[in-house]
Amino acid sequence: MRFERCAENPIVRPGLYDWRRAVCFNPAVIYEDGRFTMWERAAGSLRPFQCVIGALESTDGVHFRHLSDEPVFTPEMAGSPHGSVQDPRVVRLDGAYYMTYAFRPYAWHSHPTGLGVPESHQGDYPGFSGRDEDNQTRSGIAVSQDRVHWEHLCWATPEGVDDRDVILFPEKIGGRHAVLRRPIRRVGTDTGHGAEQPSIWISFSDDLRAWTEPELVMRPEYRWEDNRIGGSTVPIRTARGWLLLYHGVETQNAATRRVCYRLGAALLDLEEPRRVIARCPDFVMEPKEYYEKSGLYIPNAIFPTAGVVVDGLLHLYYGACDTAIALATVPLEDLVEHILAG
Q1: Of 93-97, 185-189, 270-274, 277-281, the least confident
Q2: Contact (Cβ atoms closer than 8 angstroms) between residue 143 and residue 97
Q3: Which of 23, 215, 240, 294 is deepest in the core (most CB within 10 A)?
Q4: Closest Cα partner for 202 from 166, 249, 161?
Q5: Rg, the chain, Cα only
Q6: What digits encode the pLDDT tens for the residues 21-39?
Q7: Which domain holds residue 124?
Q8: What's the DSSP call for residue 12?
Q9: In this structure, what DSSP letter does residue 33 have?
Q10: What residues pair up with 10 in beta bridges, in sequence order?
């Protein structure tokens, strides 16, 4: 499977404003009326590593400009001025825009090593115990009418567990909203996640507020995803099923916490998305270019969070080393046929 990297990668880079001078990555993107709108995760520093969400737009999907010189969604809007909002995914439903996002109440302080996952520690904040169990990632849903002005709508996951990679399906299934999840009992600054490998789960809701208990969709099965898997982009409806792009993480050196983030692909049943129709045993994309192997935060990482289809061509937007944003394309039908071929 061959994804064509954009010759101008990374297409969105940190800088310009103080709140994004350190990194920008893991964007949401939608395409409508001849316009690409992007929502980037960005941070002005690593200590604290407090992330916000900025908005950009483009007519060609490559050259983006900011819609606002300020973040359009912040941790304070989610409930904590000391927190971090991360990894947006956006869909349009019933005339409004809905953003799922990950929220940590208190931003970590991170120390990249250049070798693997950064070393991190809890910060000293008013009213915070400093304990990992009191600073787990919860996922929320924000809503907007115009793509720029957002407000927190509700929580998609409960307190007490670490639950991220929460992604709304772009339409109701059987009359209900559906969301992909990745619940973990607890995550600490050592990035450990317990004995059970994080997997992809699904929940359903009538109103976006009350969600069913998560049901398993896929577990890690292959060596290249031996650390964890999680949903990446908003699922894409195809004639053969829901295209599920997901990230798989392989531990390559536990001592240095060196990992490799790659892209996997599967198809889910259109009416029963708990059921996996087909799944590639091998990854479909891995770090290859310099900006995917070397970066400020996590080396050796591609992390797609948005896929939009224009004239049959899938535009895949991804974070590169948690540092900048890149673009790759592939004919949608070619990818679907590749998955079905196994």
Answers
A1: 185-189
A2: yes
A3: 23
A4: 166
A5: 18
A6: 999 999 999 999 999 999 9
A7: 4-341
A8: B
A9: T
A10: none
